[in-house]
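Bumping with the actual sequence this time:
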Amino acid sequence: MKDKLQVRVTAEKIHKRNVKIRLIFMLISILMLLITTIYGVIYIVSGAGNFTITLDSSLMSRTRIVMSPYRDFSETGITLHADALDYMDNISGDWLPDDIHLQEGDHSQDDYIAYSFFLKNEGDEAVDYNAVIAIQSVIKNVDEAVRVRVYHNKESTTYAKPSPITGLPEPNTTPFVSNTRIMDMDREEFEPGDVDKFTVVIWLEGDDPECVDDILGGEMKMLMYIRRK
């Protein structure tokens, strides 16, 4: 009888131990799944950067328009990315370097995103194209204080949302085209052999009345796409 009791007690201990092991294994599996999911979300949000430029594939294949971050076109592609910034503090646009539009590729700094790229017509005919900067997503109304300056060759335009109080353009800016578009420009008669340079600079304007603590932790993603007109 004593031996049977010992066997039963031992069996119960083994059963409880096995249940605990299964529970621990399940908890570890759930935690690993959560960690994997969180990592995936971070990658989706941050992996592609805050600013992306795409060239319509038909411009490259049919009319031989090529895009490159470098003046010598040593590298070309239909998609370019500016690296995401972990944190962007507000600055004044007056602090930006005077030669910011003379750089190549991604030349962002701690407090602003700056990207320069080139388009070249390697085809045999003139082409009209359309360049648009679209807003993909906004968190915490950070777009209220954002400035987007676009240099097209030697000309520059600074875009901002109109004042939410007066409805008028912010000082020295051109209003966003709409709530989902910052810029929409047409380039006509882009002749064979022509090269166009774009520099896009993005920052938080500290002098904007909407640049307040409420937008801390905000995020804004933009896409620039170039297509045949």
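The tokens above came from a reply further down the thread. The radius of gyration is 27 Å.
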